[in-house]
Amino acid sequence: MNKTDINTAIALLEQKQKIAIVPHRNPDGDAMGSTLGLYAFLKKSGHEVTVVSPNEFPDFLAWLPDSDKVVIFEREIEKAKEILQKSELIFTLDFNAFHRMGDLMGNFLSELKVPFLMIDHHEKPDDYATYMFSDIKYGSTCEMVYHFISKLGKIDWIDKQIATCLYTGIVTDSGSFKYPSTTSTTHRVVADLIDKGVENTKIHHLLFDSNSYNRLKLLGRALENMVVFPELKTAYIRLSQSDLDEFHFERGDTEGVVNYPLTIKGIDFSVIFIENSAEEIVKMSFRSQGDFDVNMFARNYFNGGGHKNASGGRSTKGLTETIEEFLQVIKRDNPAKM
Hints:
The chain has 338 residues and is α/β, with parallel strands linked by helices. The protein contains twelve helices and twelve strands. The two termini are 33 Å apart.
């Protein structure tokens, strides 16, 4: 964040404001952790604050402090619109383009005449934000929120509640600290959060060890459906709508499944294809190890993007057609050559 923007932010936040905080659609641990962490900080600072999420967040994040206070745009449209219209400042966290909100909320936000303050770590931000803290070197938006609070000169205001939210996003977006974006600074931030009261063992259990029977059965089906191409250092998983229905899919049940193929020796590129009949799309998650850039892969071929080693995409073709297109692409843009 440049000096002008941080000075402006300091001046803005010295006055009591009506503030909305917005994560991306289908919010993950980093999106919810950063919004709820910033929410708690701004409430502590005396502001009138509301988190407005485009849609529901996964059940495995429902334990986060004040998650019950989040307004869901798609569930309470008129209430959410009124909150956003009356806001004097809107923070957008963990995304950098309005299309990440989905058409309904994204189009509404794009028409508002209100200052936006972006905190995000993805590439190629759109220019909607009045003030920006955008830096791809950070592994998570939660780590950026920690540094944002530090730049405001209020690091001592981070209490156990704020620290718990920020830790959640850091641990999920870092793959439990194993991704390359995890730095020595990340560990120093986490050490400070633990000193402020974070119960890290309890959080890991809540995030990763609280599976339902149906979720484990769905994971079994996903691994059964895995296809491996050793010569391309690539593997993919497919989950049809019938697979999801059979095991009573709930939001968040496929979180992390795309990482399993990367544990196979010699596999550097992993993809999961998930059919969504209601939206008439196929959702994709891409993960890689090493130099293969899945951000550019998703941008070039599948209407997506993200980070070098973790990104997402979508297709309006059917599940079989989408996978066939993917196979044609990787035979041209071969990950094994990277």
